[in-house]
## 1
Amino acid sequence: MSTIQRSDVPHEVVDPAFAETPKIANTPASRFTSAAANYIDERTSISAVVKEFGRKIFPDHWSFMLGEVALYSFIVILLTGTFLTFFFQASMAEVTYDGTYLPLKGIDMSAAMNSTLHISFDIRGGLLMRQVHHWAALLFVASIGLHMLRIFFTGAFRKPRELNWVIGFVLFILAMAEGFTGYSLPDDLLSGNGLRIIDGLVKGLPVIGTWTSYLLFGGEFPGTEIVGRLYTLHILLLPAILVAALGVHLLLLVINKHTQFAGPGKTNDNVVGVPIMPVFAAKAGGFFFIVFGVIVLMASFFTINPIWEYGPYDPSPISAGTQPDWYIGFADGALRLVPSNWGFMIGPWTFSLNIVAPVVVLGLFIVVVLIYPFVEGWVTGDKREHHIADRPRNAPTRTAIGAAGVTFYAVLWAAASSDLIATHFGLSIEGVIRSLQILLIVGPIIAYQAAKRVSLALQKKDREIALHGYESGRIVRLPGGEYIEVHEQLSDYERWRLLSFEDYKPLMLRPDAKGRISAGQRTRALLSNWFFEDRIAPVSATELEQSHGDHGAVEAGEGHAVESGH
Amino acid sequence: MAHDASSGKDTAATSSGLDVGSVGTAIEPSTVGHAEADGGLAVITTDTFTNPGLPPTRMRATDLDPKKARNAQRAVYTLFYLSIAGSIFALAAYMAFPISDDLNSIRLNTVFLGLGITLALMGIGLGAVHWAKTLMSDEEGEDIRHPVRSNDATRTAAVQIFDEANKESGFGRRTLIRNSLIGALVAFPLPAVILFRGLAPEYNNPAALLETTMWKTGTRLTLDPSGLPVKASDVTIGSAFHIIPEGLNDVPDRLEQKAKAAVLLMRVNVADLTISPGRETWNYDGIVAYSKICTHVGCPVALFEQQTHHLLCPCHQSTFDVNNECAVIFGPAKRPLPQLPITVDGEGYLIAQSDFTQPVGPSFWERS
């Protein structure tokens, strides 16, 4: 980093604002600005930062906004959450409700529930802030999820961004943890039942379960400790970790620079886009206010988490159709899909397979998500940096794996609403659960195959268009009487966008220097065959030249370019 | 790592004999000429197109037509003024719509305050974005990427610093010091771990606590939540009652006790009941009492289907057959709901014969 060179003699200090922008009129306002800039720079070297980052280029694409939505909703959460802490009492001490909401008057509840009702019904704007906080939280997790999907399907996790994928994944887990701890704070009936499920889940864990639950709840469930403990996690520990991880996430974003989609003028060695100052700053800053505004609009009109309708927590009552917040749905669904009577005894001990199985399945699922970049990196053996985001079709197997994962998650998620699906569509709950159990296994396989075939078909289409142009709709009669449709060629710009992508081939096994083939290489060959067996080779320059030779041929080149398995 | 700065051809050729280069062997020359790493299974071909370069910038309507630009300018400052109006509206709404005992006042307060804030935020947001899209230069710039990897000189310098630090401290040489330090660092957090034992009371064994509930011989079955005792004669066939033990409302740990002792009371036709040996006397004339706490993860099994005599847990849809001692007939639960043996006392009120004969609620490791 270069800093502005300054003389050591104080009297000779050159005002950098004047030095760099001589054209600015010498008005009182500009004199003040430059004096202020000078004051700050002499104490902070801030000019160096502005010089380094002020015109930093950010590429533009709608899908790049998903991460921004996550960041902005998090800021909204911080702002509204701070407001709520001024009124919320994280205590399970029993009080008798004596507030504005008549149906609950005289009912015993915890101070947490009481203060939440107080925020909702007695403080002007309190309900609005609560609802902004909750809607923003739902949006936060949702946008992180979509952001991750964007990263996954465009291969933006490849070198050098694997570690940032891991940090982003940690942020996703933290966001869900923040969501769950916050959801439980009001100590209402619905969140209390959520905690009861956590308690039951924890108790079902082998060996450590009973003690873990006992320590977590400070005695027997529900105890009088859990809300206070979750509060500390929710407003202190988890946000601190989250902010730190977010800082590293953004720092790595700056260091690695943003990916961009393939396009004319874009290479793996440049970033094309708008500079931070002024365009990106205006767009991104404006977008923050739009996200904030949309959340406030939702909070103004749509009730979220009406705890006054649920009442205070009591282990006995419950309402039908209970639903967790959406992001916990997949875990709740996993619990629901376990067949009856899973569990057995090991000597005197109870092994709750109906708990352990879904915990292990979900654990494996998130571990696969976590390590996927490293697996793909190992299979391809590609040690180069990748800054051009893939179009999903150009990485068919990855896209198919992603589609399978999304389907798996979606089935678990749907299972969390199995009872509502049954009642809404007049189906039996048994039928719904059985169907989802089958779908959980079959669905990802179908999605995998479908996504792969669709990707390959789209690649073929791209190839076809690149080689032979697109149908112009203009019919011409040839001298011999034959009618043909004229194909228009793509412009160089459009063709480049279609054709510049990475192409890989399966690993061909060869013995190493000692004449052996290691098990690792065998596995890698197997995996690489799975990944790249079906591939559509990109159009080469020679091919294009040849196709231009027999201009007008419509049906050529359908099969010869497709290479199939070795 | 192959980071030879010569031509890409060499790099590909040294790529450890992998299946590259059946088509070609050279990596597309890098535009900035920095080192290229191993491409692995990537197919490197020379037979490619050249990047046509950035397309010419398209002029926007506001670039070409000063009138359009003036309109855009007007739109932007109107939006910013609207934002100010929104803020003032929110301030006014705060005062104009106070909260009273009327619930509708909360709705009005929320909606109008919210609308004002929305307008204040959206005015700024839309104004700024519109400004950027129509009036600010939309000419794209280009930054050159540099490899994330530090250059060799920097890396050598970093290694040297570690080397020097190692030499100056003797960290690598004085192994006894180093290993004892590592040992100390591993050991020092242990006291912090043990401190967390204090999270729950020290005099109890959690597994033992789960074995018993408030029910004792002779405890009356009372209604949840009123605590009024129930006469056997009040329980008609097909009816169901939510039950708590007598005195539950007066104990200090009411919720903890209730989380174990909650019971569902139902009366079915005695002839329909399948009763296993030893439980013949546990029902009273077809009146049966079962733990209401699901054996799956502890939700209250609160839904009684009168026609089928099934109990359904609304959380995860575990279904229990009352006629068959609450055996699991569907859903993820493993064990039947424990039955509370009941009878009547001299006054005809339903009482418990004893506590549950097995732990209620979710399964746990120590449960035998």
Note: Chain A has three domains: 10-53, 58-308+322-390, 466-563.
## 2
Amino acid sequence: MRWHRIQALVLRYTYLYTRSVPRVTEILFWPLMDLLVWGYVSVYLHRVGGVSGAANAFMFLLGAMIFWDILYRAQQGVTLSFLEDVWSRNLLNVFVAPVRVSEFVLTTFIVGFFRIAVTIGVLAGLAYALYSFNIFSLGMSLVPFFANLLLMGWALGMVTTSLIMRWGQGAEALAWGVPFLIQPVAAVFYPLDVLPGWLQPVALSIPATHVFEGMRQVLRGEGVSAASLAAAFALNAVYLVAAALFFRYMFTVARRKGLLAKLGTQ
Amino acid sequence: MNEAVVQVEHLRKEFNGTVAVADVSFNVRHGEIVGVLGPNGAGKTTTIQVLLRLTTPTSGAVRVFGKDLERHRCEILQRCNFCSAYTALPANLRVRENLRVTGGLYGVKDLPGKMDRLLELFEITHLKNKVTGQLSSGESTRVNLCKSLLNDPELLMLDEPTASLDPNIADKVRKLLRRIQREQGITMIYTSHNMRDVEEVCDRVLFLHKGGIIAEGTPQAVIAQFNHKTLEEVFISVARSGDLLAEATE
């Protein structure tokens, strides 16, 4: 891996995002809308609930919404970076240069990380200002939670990009749809035990489930389950390797079928 | 001067059972400008894509700078570049930003100086701070050519570089390419549907039809081989031979 190539690709995405008002808006618009809707839903629940659990539900929903955005934006960071090159017919310029696939993927990770940092920074600030909800009250456990969601988002991003590479621009709706396939099972907005018994083992095989369960534990003041975090990291390691192998395989297929060139000139 | 920069042996490429390149073998020597010609579907774009490692061959061997392309992709591409009428640089970046990114990808030394020299060579210094998406197609082509020369490539692949240019700019570009090739000894592979381009620029042509090479030699030799007066007449007679015309009129 050569740093100057990664640096050049990061620079290219930095130019791209800072030059375009719609792209900057896109980074903040949807998270902001989510925060407002979920925030006020939580406030409403808090008012009508009138029971002690409602206060927790308020925090759980806001925390879950912000955490979900980390996962979603991490996936988008990878997939949309690839799509940006497709849309601008620049993909061939990248792959006729001596850029390794690993360098390209690492760049999308870095870009995704900065997109998330901006989004979460704004969301955390607004959640505190509007609802007095402090995401940093999770303390140091925020770090492993964040890391796990980031890793899972990257794995999902690689899988989504692979599918777009294989099935072309017709499949680009997947960029926005894939994370929502796991949302109902990953216990994002409700605890694991709400799911039917037969679905719970499936949910536990998703790293994000451990994070969302862990977040609720911490907000309840029960501390972090080290075993649950370890399980999330272990699952993420497996999924990241599997996603990287899948990406590599699909890249090879795309080259064999001439799809890369087609995507780059469509 | 005579060593082969590109060696292609028995290249075959099929897409889902359709043969795009049947059995193509050729060499490109150091400092040559070789035109790859042929009607639509002849296999020239596929051949170029294989040389750029965008597509993997079904069978056959490709060696560039004496090295196997599959095993030394990055090392080889570091010494090559590509310019096509069918790709674009990101539209919302300024010209200098696009060149800066490309320079970074290739690790170009003295990048600002290099950019200035190339922009001056193509007479587009005034476009340096312009947004790429606001350029005319002729200006975009020249920016693309600057991009493709930024890393001092030893092998340059040009896919219809004058496709969108008016006759005046096209003539300037042809002359510039010739000059650059003479001064820097760059090896070039050139595809075009403009036969005047090819006659003026190329030292040698490979005429592809239905995935195979049907003629090879200097433009004059190929014209003589087909008993025509110009390369354009050769092109038309080849394109209209066999079932191509029948398909077109069906």
Note: Chain A touches chain B through 34 residues (CB under 8 Å).
